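Side project, low priority. Logging it here so it doesn't get lost.
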Amino acid sequence: MYKKLVLNNIDKIYHFLSAYFLTTICLPLAIVCSVGKEVFDYSTYGKKTKGFFKMAVGDLLFDGLGILFGILIIGAKYGFN
C-alpha cells in the first residue's frame, strides 16, 4: 500500500525535498525555483494538458511545505547569509 502511494506521488516528494534543500541554502532561491518551475512547465506543456492547474497547485503546495519545513526545522534565517 505505501509503496504504491509513494510511487504515485514521487513527483510531489521531489518537489518537497528540492524546496526543503534549497531553503536551507537560500530562501529566495527556493521560492524563485518553485514558481519558476511551474511557469516553465506551463509554457512548455501546460497549455495543452488537461488538468494542469490542479497538478500545479499540488506541486506548489508541496514546494510550500518543503520551504516551511526548511524554515522551521533547520531554522533558515530567511535565506540571507
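Brief comment: The helical segments are 2-8, 10-25, 27-46, 52-74.
Revisit when time allows.
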